[in-house]
UniProtKB/TrEMBL annotation:
Pfam families: HATPase_c_2, SpoIIE. InterPro entries: HATPase_C_sf (IPR036890), HATPase_dom (IPR003594), PPM-type-like_dom_sf (IPR036457), PPM-type_phosphatase-like_dom (IPR001932), Ptase_RsbX (IPR039248). It comes from Streptomyces lunalinharesii. This is SpoIIE family protein phosphatase. It comes from the Bacteria. Residues 141-332 form the PPM-type phosphatase domain.
Length: 337
């Protein structure tokens, strides 16, 4: 069985300075839970504290998303806000620089600590940042073009969604699952789907869907979407409301929805949609906890975001809070590029 790195997102709203301490301790605990070696747990706490502090001081509607990296092996801290943006980005990245309305002195420390750091800002509109921390033997994964966020519905402590990104034989395959309803029964269905995917992730997409269907027969069922990168094409197969979007930095090229049905209860004959690969094409899967209207006329700023920041932006700005929400943005495996 292929190992799937455990993935879940902790969302910390930075609506008061007391939330900064919570974010730092959450980052430290998460790094220890995933057995990051040496001082990485303390460094994770520093990164969360610095990004959180600046959100508390200067941002509007600031949030941190803390999670393992989608491909495993490290930790990812995403910061989002809808504030004034950073008009002097280069100066803000320098140590010791601070000004009202922008990230301040802490950003230089974050840049030094992170194995990979991405930041985009819109004036006005807000700022998005992603800091990835990983041990030296996993440093190569930190710049992979993969981003994901998966959060439960508001007032729920258990996430009925799930996702996984696996690289097998040079091909990247993505799964997004949305267990019916909310809470523990939905989470049980999602986890069963992830285990079935891990048992045979290399097969054709219809074969994987049939395997997940068998595994979910004694659950309440789920919507399931699958995506696979090939050298010349991308394949998509889904049952239920897991949507696929193909986009470049300039426009949305395709918007696809799954076939009617419920995996585990009534599986239709799976159909595979094929999208030709072209330079700069990114693929995105999301559950119905992300408002699909985002893809109808997205802003140019959104289209140009790298994978982890696009996932964070959709989870922060286009999430339907009454539902579990998952989004995965995945470019091809580096071996296919």
């Amino acid at each position: 069985m292929t190992s799937i790195p455990p993935f879940s997102t902790t969302h910390v709203r930075i609506d008061h300075y007391s939330a900064v301490h919570l974010a730092a301790e959450t980052a430290r605990a998460l790094a220890r839970r995933h057995r990051l070696p040496g001082s990485l747990s303390d460094q994770a706490a520093v990164v969360a504290s610095e990004l959180g502090s600046n959100l508390a001081k200067h941002a509007v509607n600031g949030s941190l998303f803390l999670q393992p990296m989608p491909l495993g092996g490290g930790l990812e801290i995403l910061a989002t806000d809808r504030g004034p943006g950073m008009p002097e980005l280069r100066r803000c990245l320098a140590d010791g620089y601070t000004t009202t309305g922008s990230l301040g002195a802490g950003l230089g420390a974050v840049v030094r600590i992170a194995a990979d750091f991405a930041l985009r800002t819109e004036v006005p509109g807000g700022t998005l940042a992603c800091a990835r921390l990983a041990p030296p033997d996993r440093a190569g994964v930190t710049n992979e073009a993969v981003g994901a966020v998966s959060v439960p519905a508001e007032r729920e402590t258990t996430n009925g969604d799930g996702c996984a990104v696996l690289d097998v034989d040079g091909r990247r395959t993505v799964l997004v699952v949305d267990g019916l309803g909310h809470g523990e029964p939905a989470a049980e269905a999602a986890q069963s789907a992830l285990r079935a995917f891990a048992r045979a992730p290399e097969g054709p997409l219809p074969e994987i869907l049939h395997g997940v269907h068998r595994a979910l027969r004694h659950t309440r069922g789920a919507a399931v979407g699958l995506l696979r990168h090939h050298p010349d094409r991308v394949e998509y197969a889904a049952v239920g409301n897991v949507r696929c979007v193909a986009l470049t930095a300039h426009e949305v090229h395709h918007r696809l929805t799954g076939q009617p049905g419920i995996v585990g209860l009534n599986l239709p004959t799976p159909q595979v949609r094929r999208i030709p690969r072209e330079p700069g094409l990114s693929m995105l899967l999301h559950s119905d906890g992300i408002d699909p209207r985002w893809a109808h006329s997205p802003a140019p700023f959104l289209l140009r975001l790298p994978a982890p920041l696009l996932a964070a932006a959709l989870a922060d700005r286009h999430r339907l809070t009454r539902d579990d929400a998952t989004v995965v943005v995945a470019g091809p495996h580096q071996g296919l590029m």
